[in-house]
Amino acid sequence: MPGWLDRVLSTVIGDPRHYPIERRLLNTISLLNAAANIGGSFAALVYETGRFLVLLHLGTGLLFAVFYYFSRFKNAYKVLYWPFVAMVLAFLFINSLFNAGSAGGAHYYFIPALVIGVILSVSTRRTIVAFLVFGATTAALFIVEQYNPDWITQYASPLKRMQDVRSNFLFAQFLTGILVVVLTKNLNQERAKSDSLLLNILPATVAEELKANDSVCPRRYEARRCCLQTSSGLLR
Question: Is this prediction's pTM over 0.70?
Answer without folding.
Answer: yes
